[in-house]
Amino acid sequence: MEIRLADSKDKRKIIKYDNHIHHNKVGECIWNQLVYVLCDEKKIVGVLRYSLFWQSIPFLDLLYIDEDYQGKGFGKQMMEHWESVMRRMNYKYVMLSTQEDETAKYFYEKLGYQRIGAFLPPEQDADEIMYLKTL
Question: What is the pTM of this model?
Answer without folding.
Answer: 0.91
